[in-house]
Design brief:
Elements lengths: L1 E9 L2 E9 L8 E5 L6 H8 L7 E3 L1 E2 L2 E2 L5 H11 E4 L11 H9 L8 H7 L15 H13 L5 E5 L7 H18 L2 E6 L10 E6 L2 E7 L12
Parallel strand pairs: 3-9, 3-10, 7-8, 8-9
Antiparallel strand pairs: 1-2, 1-4, 5-6, 10-11
């Protein structure tokens, strides 16, 4: 990302969500974007994932300029290169865990087997369970399995523990950390919870649409070592 800016106009009001962000992300690293509500985290994540476009600047993914890509190219980018995990699980209630994951693997170029993805997040015994039969944390882990099952190069997570209690949130972070470690997927987690930053390779602090600080973790914590 170079000089990345995002301006929203609501009538006569202008909102600067991002103001000249410069940032490189590297293959296989786990990055936490940390900042308060309104700091620009979600806007940045949506632009990285091809869900939104920048007002200025550029986003380059493996020499492909996403800021000048057509909608069809962005769709291909999202489909084949990016996995998304949101705060709310967006599972299909009438499908089992395995079937919810298969919705993605059926359109991916090089997918994992749904059962393998569910095993990776600790749900190998819950393949035939429906969302209503699972806890919130288990549903979020199904959502993570769905995201990683297409073997994405980039995994983008927007407040993945925001709707969960601390114990359940740690299980979800363990699933994300394990996916990052075993699949070497570049993983970006946005949060306002400073404790989560302990599991990251790098922590990017955002404030008022700008990067205010970048820190590197010399000794990463495991999710189970976090104190919320």
């Amino acid at each position: 990302m170079k000089g990345l800016a995002k301006l929203y106009r609501m009538g006569e009001v202008e909102v600067h969500a991002l103001r000249g962000v410069d940032l490189d992300l590297f293959a296989g690293e786990l990055v936490v974007l940390l900042g308060p509500s309104g700091s620009g985290k979600s806007t940045l994540l949506n632009i990285l994932g091809g869900l939104d476009t920048a007002s200025a600047g550029e986003v380059v993914y493996r020499e492909k300029d996403l800021t000048r890509a057509a909608e069809r190219e962005l769709t291909e980018y999202r489909r084949h290169h990016v996995g998304f995990v949101f705060q709310f699980y967006n599972l299909i209630p009438s499908l089992t865990a395995q079937e919810n994951v298969a919705v993605v693997t059926d359109i991916a170029k090089r997918p994992m087997k749904p059962e393998d993805a569910l095993s990776l997040v600790g749900l190998g015994e819950r393949l035939t369970h429906f969302p209503a039969q699972m806890s919130g944390g288990e549903q979020q882990r199904v959502a993570i399995a769905r995201a990683i099952a297409k073997n994405p190069d980039v995994l983008l997570c927007d407040e993945p523990t925001g709707a969960l209690d601390s114990t359940t949130g740690i299980k979800v972070l363990e699933a994300l950390e394990r996916a990052n470690r075993e699949l070497a997927t570049t993983t970006v987690i946005i949060t306002h919870n400073a404790d989560i930053a302990g599991i990251a390779d790098r922590v990017i602090h955002l404030s008022d649409g700008r990067i205010s600080e970048v820190s590197v973790n010399d000794v990463k914590k495991r999710p189970g070592d976090l104190h919320w």
